[in-house]
Batch of 4 targets.
Target 1
Amino acid sequence: MQDDRAEQDQLIETFDGRARRRSDRRAFFTAALGVAAAGGAFAYADPALAQTSVTDSDVLNFALNLEYLEAQFYLYAVNGSGLAANLTSSGSGTAGGTVTGGARVDFSGDPLVGAYAREIAADEQAHVAFLRTALGSAAVAMPNINISGDANGAFTAAARAAGVVGSNGVFNPYASPTDFLLGAFIFEDVGVTAYKGAAPLLSNKTFLEAAAGILAVEAYHAAIVRTTLYSKGVQGLIDATEKISAARDMLDGNPTEDQVRGIGPKDDQGIAPSGSGSTLTANLSPLNSNGLAFSRTPGQVLNIVYLNAGTATMGGFFPNGVTGNIRSTT
């Protein structure tokens, strides 16, 4: 009997220990993610939007704005035309905005990049359709988008700010397959960090799983772009990615370092390798010291796509701002 009692006590202690560990892990992740459930929404952890609650619809509509931008860029590069009107209107029928610029890229000189571009274009169009279906009547209309490659276009403004071209230079991402890759590089890493940063804001697990699925696809896209640029072995291209990365770091501010969440003042990287010879190591996956992908808040993402490090509600690739409730960098 004593042996049975001792065995029962040991079993109870084991279960208690497991319960405590589960509670500790839950507390750790709650603190690490910095979120708190509140009436079906999450209290936003960004200090710039402290005390503001965002709904799942707000978060998905914010993502939809980014998908509109990416889909239009890739579809124009592949087809010379963008999304159909039925994929740009709001869920309640309001017409979508306009697209400035966009042109078909001649991929005949690099058919492999053309194949990548066609795959990514189809994926981005599918993301738009999926998010619109998930949101239903709550889906926002596409805002006005600038993807022009001329002297007054958003791509040129971004390239000038990064020092990829001179103050009077022009960057046209539709001029060649290589220029197209650099244009895609401007978007893809930002998309990955945007989805990762927004994930803790979602309260519906089905939406969270769907967002994780899109995040994975965006990460694949970013890896394709980064790997293809790196494999060309052109130092000028590597240098250009470092300049674009530095510009994004400048635009998105200096948040306090958090190695668990992947947040920090240096949350961006180009594709420059480290080491040399037998120690040469590529940098195709931009990660922190814990091997984690970086996160950006919606405000930081807007700083980048608006091409404005300060307080802004419009600019850059969204000349009149994004649509929905998450519109301002602050």
Note: Residues 181 and 225 are 6 Å apart (CA to CA).
Target 2
Amino acid sequence: MAKFTTSRAVIGEFYRTLEQDIGNTWVPGCSMEFTSDQESETYAWLGQSPAMREWVGARQAKGLTENGITIMNKKFESTLEIPVDWIRRDKTGQIQVRIREMAERANSHWASLLSTLIINGESAVCYDGQYFFDTDHTEDDSGVQSNKINTDITTPAAPTLSDMQTAILSSTQQLLGFKDNQGEPMNENAREFIVMVPVPFMSAAAAALGATVIGQTSNQIQALGSLGGFTYRLAVNARLTWATKFALMRADGSSAAFIRQEEEKIKVSALAEGSEVEFTHDVHRYGIKAMRNVGYGYWQRAVLNTFI
């Protein structure tokens, strides 16, 4: 383990660990990233572009349905205080461990923000004025649509391999059927999906997605991938508080279920050698700061499935 004697070395170690990573691998798959240069950004979800039609007579221009949401940037920070004597005495690399932990926690921040968004999806409003996970979404010619469905099983808190396969397939079917505001299929080209489950569902979900024996009941998901070109990625989210639910999200579209908005990337500052804090309290302080937030994007890119 390295021994840090200067604040420059501490900051360097933090950035080496951080590398401006977004953390959990599922984050980019289910969210769109936008940069911001002001206090808030407004996202106008203007329906879908018109589908091709036979040109008969004059062109038929279609207007856009104006809906939108505004996301306010928030300031986030984390500050670590280290006594100067600890720095001088540290021979076992404990400070390096703490610095790396701080960077790793920073890398998990997007996952933390998005997980809260997902958990609150049944009670928080998205761009169409409905809850993000709801049973009565409707826009112009879309008809009434639901991205909140149920699967009836014997033990809702302990689904079996077969239960998970049935639920994953029904969620996929539901998502593929969504239509846009012009009545056109919205996910007909979807081929990649994220299956996000709470920790207690890990075993059943992994077995459901990982079965490989052709011809057996436990092979439905693999067969779907072989025949239809569908692929599924398992995301075990330890932050989910669900006991009987999981979510399926599209991971390959140009738009996504959620928005990541960033005004200022993570930056590190220090009050260290020669500072008033060192003189008065005999400590060094290392702080990180970011300006960012998250919000709901397209509800049509996600389905919540509850076992009942």
Note: The longest helix spans residues 161-176.
Target 3
Amino acid sequence: MTDLHVVLGATGAIGGAVADELRARGHRVRAVSRGGAGPDGLAADVTTPDGAAAACEGAAVVYQCAQPPYARWAAEFPGFTDAVLSAVERAGSRLVMADNLYMYGPVKGPMGEDLPYAAANPKGRARAKVAEMILAAHREGRVRASLGRASDYFGPRGVNTILGPTIFAAAAAGKTARWIGDPDVLHTVSYLPDIAAGLVTLGERPEADGQAWHLPVLAAPTGTEFLDMVWDAAGGRARNAALRRGMQRVLGLVNPVVKELGETWYQRDRDWVVDDTAFRAAFGDPPLTPHEEAVAATLKWFRAQA
């Protein structure tokens, strides 16, 4: 049986980390992106049926780490997912989806996998639709699939994330690091290499199929605690600020990226804590990277880019 593991979106932050983790574990990798970068890269447009089929051909496991642009999730994600599901079915592969927490909507208390998909906003409904499509395809016997869900992430390559430019790039340049939301509530953060390790574990363990899993994380810090760790690693005088709801509304009038944040502000104004009990019970306690070590490695990467 083939040991080919295919990563869709391999030049993105999560896809790149998954490809690295697969290589470290000794798997054969096909790293798929539009440009086909890297020694094991393949150029393919996986939003099209033909491109997705070429990308997935011969794979034992496909890791879906690609996604449409953030502002176009609602319009494009379901069709994109349908193309990938058809390609995985044709190849007879297993599918691991790199997922997030948008489908739950506003919550109270720690988030377990049993929460309903209660999001009413367009992005949350799009993520709910994608998850439902994948799990339905599994139930119907079309594919064998699992989903690995993570919170806001940071780490090397993490530039298209709420923690990257506003905190790490700013601190690396000695500028003000801005926490988006209330800095005094708990907020689970996920480190990219730890996300990758969790997704690859799902890919290696067929018993993971048929459900969504919250990938393992460390205890959630507050925004203030996270910023303190960043400046401890950066050195120098701490320069922090919080972008709260009122300022987000004002800036959103002139900045479309900031405006997008309003749709899911409930992730910023209350405790946002992941419960990873199910993953740990099924697969054991993983060796997660301590926050301080992860923060230092991320800051080093951002400094190198500057």
Note: The longest helix spans residues 73-91.
Target 4
Amino acid sequence: MRPALPSLNALRAFEAAGRLGSFKEAAAELHVTHGAISQQVRLLEAWLGAPLFERHNRRVVLTPAARAYLAEIAPLFDQLAQATARYGLSEAVARTLNVNAPATFTLRWLVPRLEKFRARRPDVEVRVETSNEPVESLKDSYDIVIRGGPDTFYGYAMRPFLEEKRLPVCSPALLRRVPLRTPEDLRRHTLLHTSSLPRVWPDWLAQVDMPALMPSAALTFDHFYLTLQAAVDGLGIAMGPTALVADDLASGRLVAPFDGPRLPSRSYCTYVADEKIADDLIVQFRAWLEREGAAFASEPGV
């Protein structure tokens, strides 16, 4: 005889609320009311005979025991989705999600994380096309468009999901050849530019009170991912957005020679046509992006 189990709805509500740290966000993800999440959590607490959350005004915090419980049950939902997909039950509802995003963002931030979403929704084919065209200029209809922002476009709903700042980055090999201890030392280096971002270096130099500084040389590229690759290859120093160079900094391919300042930058946002904002798959993908953005923001050194 199998042991008794709590309600699956109660477990889903607990998993979402615990993962997101919010009953409100859990309700949005599961397409139910805030009250429904609260009720299901109370039912699970009654079934277990122990509290799961500590309530703090508008946020909730897992108890230590509940945190351990969540760590054990959360992977089971992914396993259930994967098993269902393998068995073929998801074929009837297979979906394609069409995403349009900037090339450098896609290559350096989205692609390394996309497998996490595919693990949650193996029944979904995510098709990503890259471009920098303004949202209102796109000729094809996409489910989600990712661009900088926040901006307002008629007929689109915007939500930010990832913040970043810019700071100088370069290869460690370059620093061994030509040390860089203060911004003044940039006079002995090559500054790397992107033609679509002409103000980045001048704005940062103004922040360190050196607007007239002249480097030994400059290189300009037409695509930002080429600028970052040139930095990795030791050709010079680039202004790297924290979100797009985090993996390179963590691996040691790039280093940040200065503690600051960090230049403010636009956030990454999702833009969805008004008629699609209630689509369940689009809601899930946006919520996933927002969780990944929040997780990135909590990483040390970001």
Note: The first strand starts at residue 53 and ends at 56.
